[in-house]
Amino acid sequence: MRKSFPLLTPLIHGTLVLTLVLAFIGNGSNGSNLFLIPVVVLAASLASSSYGSTALARSFLLGVGLVFATVTLTMSLAAFRGSEAPNAYWVFVVALWLASWKLNETIIRIGDERPALAKASNLMVPVIFGITLLFLWEFIVVGANVPKVLLPAPSDIGVRLANSLPTLWADFQQTFLKAVLVGYVLGCGAGFALALLVDRVPFLRQGLLPIGNLVSALPIIGVAPIMVMWFGFDWPSKAAVVIIMTFFPMLVNTVSGLAASDAMHRDLMRTYAAGPVATLVKLRLPTAMPFIFNALKINSTLALIGAIVAEFFGTPIVGMGFRISTEVGRMNLDMVWAEIAMAALAGSLFYASIGMLERMVTFWHPSMRAER
Fold first, then answer.
1. 3-state helix, strand, coil in the chain (%, to 5)
2. Whole-angstrom distance between the N-terminal and C-terminal Cα of the chain?
3. Dist. CA 202–CA 256, nearest whole Å
4. d(CA 207, CA 194)
5. Rg of the chain over all Cα atoms, to the nearest angstrom
6. Which of 174, 235, 260, 273 makes a 20 to 30 Å CA pair with 365?
7. C-alpha–C-alpha distance, residues 172 and 365, integer Å
8. How far is residue 326's CA from residue 71's CA, in Å, rounded to a whole number?
């Protein structure tokens, strides 16, 4: 059984009591009386969850109260816009954060009590944690009356996302579907093909790998302007930057993976009279797959970063990097964050798809069996 923080529940009760005291002292000024209902609901859910016989029942009761209290506070944020929130507001935000912490601890215990729900509980914890961070961001920005030019609230970013879908889709097509995917496929494919050649020609290993390490250390801001001058302002120059960034990680990892096969296994293949091609296909490439997928996952993030940064140095009037650099100059930070959110979502889905493919291909690897 996993240990929990023993003082967590008393801390939550203490912050709720302090919220009521500060709201009473505020005498209803500046929205202080808005905390009465959510405080009572959260306190009632905490009290009722303590009587739950299982972690599933306790998490359900606590989750219902936490959702209601959060929604109630979110609906009352209009009372604080344009002015700083009262002290009771900040104490109650701390109470919500502590309650979400307790909810995550309770959900983790579901996997201990019911192994069949272990995967579901492990998935819910990061989801709840991420949602909590978004709400904390919203509460802090609105409560502290932070100017939008410094840090917009997630609600403002969401509104801009919804109102700018055609522009965001055009930027996504230009940056991700053209520059990133084309450069990723060509860079990783060329690195993999050259690794097979390096594996057969020993002097190439000693000559190319040091050059690869040197090129990998080149800064993007130094390479991108050169590629723009060579290939023009459209997406091919950004794809060229992505090729440079993804080529050598794939080369180095594939060469290391091909050399990772055990000597006893190679002797066994020779015993069966297997030639170089059969040994490569049936032994060395499967052994190298974890290394190859490691390079693919690393390159999935490098490709998106490289394409966006390359667009800062010349591009048509479309693209994620172009939009970010332009809207920063116009002080439209909500649009900048909308582009960042879209890039983060695209990069995460890209990385996750490669991870799922890795599970399908390398299901035999001990690291994959350990996660099951």
1. 85, 0, 15
2. 19
3. 13
4. 13
5. 27
6. 273
7. 35
8. 35
Distance (Å, whole) CA 243 – CA 249: 11
Distance CA(9)–CA(358), nearest Å, equals 41
Rounded Cα gap, residues 273 and 279, in angstroms: 10
Which backbone phi and psi does 144 adopt, to 5 degrees? -90, 0
Cα 224 to Cα 111, 227, 250, 346, distances in angstroms: 48, 5, 20, 22
Please give the full DSSP string across 95-132, using - where no structure is assigned.
Answer: HHHHHHHHHHHHHHHHHHH-GGGHHHHHHHHHHHHHHH
The token pair that represents 118 in the structure block: 């272990």
Burial class (CB in 10 A: 0-12, 13-18, 19+), 306: buried
Q: Tell me the whole-structure pTM to 2 decimals.
A: 0.81
pLDDT digits (tens, 9 = 90+) for 232-246: 888 888 999 999 889
The pLDDT value given to residue 349: 92
Q: What angle do CA 363, 367, 372 make, to 5 degrees?
A: 65
Lowest mean pLDDT among 26-40, 80-94, 334-348: 26-40
Distance CA 206, CA 204 (A): 5
Specify the CATH superfamily of domain 162-370: MetI-like (1.10.3720.10)
Average pLDDT value over all residues in the chain: 82
Round to whole Å and give the CA distance between 155 and 170. Answer: 23
20 phi and psi, to 5 degrees?
-65, -40
Confidence at residue 197, expressed as pLDDT on a 0 to 100 scale: 86
Could you read off the pLDDT of 116-162 as tens digits, one per residue? 777 787 888 888 888 999 999 998 888 888 888 888 889 889 999 99
